[in-house]
Amino acid sequence: MASSQAGKVWFITGASSGFGRLLTEYVLSLGGSVVATARRPDLLNDLTTHYAANVQLLRLDVSRPSEVDAAVKDALARFGHVDVLVNNAGYGVTGAFEEVAEEEYRPMFETNVFGLITLTQALLPQFRARRSGNIVNLSSIGGLTGLPGWSMYNATKFAVEGMSEALGMELEPLGVHVTIIEPGPFRTEFLGTSGKKSNELIADYAGTAHKTRAYMDAQNGKQAGDPQKAVEAIVAAVSAPKPPRHLLLGKLALERFRAKLKSWDEEIAEWEETTIGADFEGAVASTPYASK
After folding, report:
1. Considering its fold, how many domains does the chain have in total?
2. Containing domain of residue 67, as a range?
3. Residue 214's pLDDT is what?
């Protein structure tokens, strides 16, 4: 049975479609309140019909710091606090590393990485003051494994993984949990309207990166992942006594990551002597944090 969200305030970015829209609706159906933000909040107007007292629709392009500040101010003025921040806004650009131009990849970094940083930092003071709450960062299996054609997108999601892991360690003693969501292919608009392709095509990448373009066209709307089940899993994770730091979603994501771990472990073993041999003779490794 789903956990009631009554009394909880969620702040969700990219709420006009995909996971963001479904998560907004699901939290509201569980009695929670939602600050639903999007670049076009008018696409969410229908929610005010049934949830007027519990939903706040705000315009927010996370790549614009002034809009981030305004949205946080308005949300806190309306609800007084935020229990759960969901950094969901984001998109992908496909193309070989050499093909993706700066004007194509930089806006993606501004949304997927820097926008996430700006918004999270804006809300951290209230999380610290309350000594409770959850931050949910939408990554991807593409934040754990790289694939041809996704190099620039992989870079944004690998960044989300690293900063989220460190942030989680910083906030855990303060009672705030960080969970990284790593979906495989889900039937959202990621391969459709939310997916972009580089303008340049270099023939030498036909056998690698260009296969990703064909995959996007062929698989859009046919992905195995059920978005509704994904958002239900996110709420379940947030509601758990000990929320997970990482949450893979979908069988394909699980299989791909397990395959990477196996391959990586084999490579580490093969090169272990070289790895250890890079230290000074007799040196003792140390860290400021106890390993678990």
Report:
1. 1
2. 9-267
3. 79
